[in-house]
Amino acid sequence: MFQTFDVTARPEQGPPRLVLLRQELARAGLDGFLVPRADAHQGEYVAPHDERLSWLTGFTGSAGFCAALTHVAGVFIDGR
């Protein structure tokens, strides 16, 4: 599974990408993964190559994260 930036993420792309993420989790022996809307430096502005949350879920807001577990996933955002 490789992330590319050729196409802007859309919500309908999330389910197949979540399947791929879960396959990687199973392969690594993990039960879940947190996908933040942040870069390695926790900066306010996230570069396109760090838009992991948007890539996985289609969410393009300013703050949030996705908790992806083996059988359930959710996107958590604030009220901004």
The main pleated sheet reads as: 3 strands, antiparallel
What is the β-strand count?
Answer: 3
Q: Whole-number average pLDDT?
A: 86
User: Which topology does CATH recognise?
Assistant: Creatine Amidinohydrolase, Chain A, domain 1
Distance from first to last alpha carbon: 32 Å
Radius of gyration: 12 Å
**Reading side by side through the largest sheet, how are the strands ordered?**
1-2-3
What portion of residues is helical?
25-40%
Rough shape? globular
* Number of contiguous helices: 2
**Low-pLDDT segments, ≥5 res:** none
CATH architectural name: 3-Layer(aba) Sandwich
Structural class: alpha+beta
CATH superfamily: Creatinase/prolidase N-terminal domain
What does this structure look like?
The longest helix has 15 residues, at 14-28. The mean pLDDT is 86. Strands 1-2-3 form a three-stranded antiparallel sheet. With 80 residues, the chain is an alpha+beta fold. The chain is built from two helices and three strands, in the order αβαββ. It is globular, with a radius of gyration of 12 Å. The protein has a single domain, classed as Creatinase/prolidase N-terminal domain (Creatine Amidinohydrolase, Chain A, domain 1). It has helices at residues 14-28, 52-57, and strands at residues 32-36, 64-69, 73-77.
